[in-house]
Amino acid sequence: xxxxxxxxxxxxxxxxxxxxxxxxxxxxxxxxxxxxxxxxxxxxxxxxxxxxxxxxxxxxxxxxxxxxxxxxxxxxxxxxxxxxxxxxxxxxxxxxxxxxxxxxxxxxxxxxxxxxxxxxxxxxxxxxxxxxxxxxxxxxxxxxxxxxxxxxxxxxxxxxxxxxxxxxxxxxxxxxxxxxxxxxxxx
Length: 187
Description:
Elements: H1 3-10, H2 14-36, H3 39-56, H4 66-84, H5 106-121, H6 124-135, H7 140-147, H8 151-173
Helix pairs in contact: 1-2, 2-3, 2-4, 2-6, 3-4, 4-7, 5-8, 6-8, 7-8
């Protein structure tokens, strides 16, 4: 992170903030999408987070902490976006843009689809802790700082989140139970 851009933005330099925004948009959007699992909601949350950043950047005491601070603002905006819209309505298909550079293998596509469906079924809080810890690979203390909780709480949330994700994936993998028709009673 270019701390000079942060300092410039803190002093009202709009060009510095514009450059900071351009550099940070992919990072913040990736986190928002990971949490919300909806492109439009993620874009809205990212834009709202940038507005919050602009409005409050002067209060940031340590420019070196900009990244963690911006994650905190983004997570709050993701939660607000999720509350605004019914989380059950999230249904976006995966596009090739979302795919990693995995081999074009049928099993890999199935695994990715199962993971995505399982991820959509867990709570917003669980998605958030998984994204921050596993996707961003943030240390536990940084995740704790971002979420405003203790590192122990992060550990327990992460454990529960991964168990929920595992259960959701396993539930999807089970074959449906056939419905047995009951014979009509003869009168």
